[in-house]
Amino acid sequence: MTLHPKIAAVTDRIRARSETTRGIYLDRMAAAAAEGPRRSHLTCGNQAHAYAAMGGDKDSLVAEKSPNIGIITAYNDMLSAHQPFETYPDKIRDAARAVGATAQVAGGVPAMCDGVTQGQTGMELSLFSRDVIALAAAVGLSHNVFDSAMYLGVCDKIVPGLVIAAATFGYIPGIFVPAGPMVSGLPNDEKSKVRQEFAKGNIGRKELMEAEMASYHGPGTCTFYGTANSNQMLMEFMGLHMPGASFVNPGTPLREALTVAATERASQITSLGNDYRPVSEILDEKAFVNGLVGLMATGGSTNLVLHLPAMAKAAGVILDLEDFADISSVTPLMAKVYPNGLADVNHFHAAGGLGYMMGDLLKAGLLHEDVKTVGGDGLSLYTQEPKLKDGRVVYGPGTDSTLNDKILRPASDPFHPTGGLTQLKGNLGLGMMKTSAVAAERHIVEAPARVFHTQEAVKDAFKAGEFTEDTIIVVRFQGPRSNGMPELHGLTPTLAVLQDRGLKVALVTDGRMSGASGKVPSAIHVCPEAADGGPIAKVQDGDMVRLDAVAGTIDVLDVNLDTRAVAEADLRGNGNGVGRELFDVFRQNVGLAASGAGVVI
């Protein structure tokens, strides 16, 4: 199928915009690759330190003829999605030995759970943890004893941070290894209803806790389509996973076999063999365009609008919000997974999942087929379905039709003709909105503003019964420079209750919302942020604000904001407690949300 002209045009635009930066990046990667296997440049003393604890693997490592795989792990057993990684290093070492390779844990990276820190002070470290993860992974890989790398990570900031590191060490081949989603528990829509009843005061904490524990109940990613599962989609669309690896449940024979297959593949694609596939050659402008298409077709997380530009920049590719908007305009919304529907990711996977979706998007000319992936050449590899045969992964044709059209539809008959994310521009600045889960009649909201500087103040106003008419709630001083840009997902039940009461409500903020948010219209990532003197710092109570996701605008009406003074907030309390002291340098040097809110890249 011929590539869609808009996809081709956006790709060409990104390539032209990135010509200089991408060229510099590739030259650096080529120079590093030309030095050959990294271990050969170490002294005998260097190598002795690296191999001292490797027991029977020492001879292979010293000979430098077999590949050594570096494992970067985000394991901890507080985070359900990462708990399965506890046993992966042993499995990877065994699988590597079976094919004549070796493997070492190169280092660990932090992995915080946004579900644990949601609405808490620790959430102010969440976005910055992405850059810490990149730094920590770089430290692990800096020992220069690895011929390829396996990255064990799943959730919100972890995968983007690992991609930044993988791109920085782009001369090393790398494979991302998922752990899979937990099996389905209490349906996400029922959990949401319980949260709303708690927000109304109709039930107590006992009932709320029972519902939460029934929803989040075992190892694996949360089953809604938030940032964690959007990350897994992204790694598959961009060719960094083994085909079909994203949504296989933890602890199953197929999950185990896919980890073995990833290890074997990591040993095959090093410079020691004849199928060298460095990350630098995989992460080109076509891979990122494919990732953007996947994000739109699935109605994925708004957090990736922050992360993708940062990931791309690490590979010398420059993305901007115009690319997101243009790709969204021609990409059909093919999936309905909570919060965009009642299904969870297990249901989506059973309906045909990513393999079916990618095959159909390729037929529609909406994806680049001619890409390099860790699995081989061509994205069509990812339309295949992994199955078990004699305990090993074998690939066969995937389904070419949806198995449940209430969850997954073809590109020719989608749930919506365009993607799930919309860019917003206006006199309030630049922002974006996730539209995939918002009812069409709520895509335009025009109402007086109520301005707040904390999400707690919004909740207090709600409890006091202050919201009795259509309202656009402005929550500012929530950007990366103010307080690290925490997610404001804790406002979702409150706003949903107001909406259910028949009010037209919307949120406008320079902060973030969770990847699981979406039923209430929300203009997020508004920049310049209030702490930078952006227009959002000039809004006053009672100003008429119009949020229009159809036209892609966000404006204060009938007011000349240039005549207004910038509001100030007391941010002194944002700099201490729960480790915030350590991140002052991040808050002082962070970039704009529109370009990824990066610190180290």
Automatic annotation (TrEMBL):
The keyword Iron applies. Pfam families: ILV_EDD_C, ILVD_EDD_N. GO terms for molecular function: 4 iron, 4 sulfur cluster binding; metal ion binding; phosphogluconate dehydratase activity. Its EC number is 4.2.1.12. It comes from the Bacteria. Pathway: Carbohydrate metabolism; Entner-Doudoroff pathway. Residues 406-597 form the Dihydroxy-acid/6-phosphogluconate dehydratase C-terminal domain. It catalyses: 6-phospho-D-gluconate = 2-dehydro-3-deoxy-6-phospho-D-gluconate + H2O. Coiled coil: none annotated. Binds 1 [4Fe-4S] cluster. One of its GO terms (cellular component) is cytosol. Residues 67-379 form the Dihydroxy-acid/6-phosphogluconate dehydratase N-terminal domain. Gene3D superfamilies: IlvD/EDD C-terminal domain-like. [4Fe-4S] cluster binds at C155, C222. It is an enzyme of class 4 (lyase). Catalyzes the dehydration of 6-phospho-D-gluconate to 2-dehydro-3-deoxy-6-phospho-D-gluconate. HAMAP family: Edd. This is Phosphogluconate dehydratase.
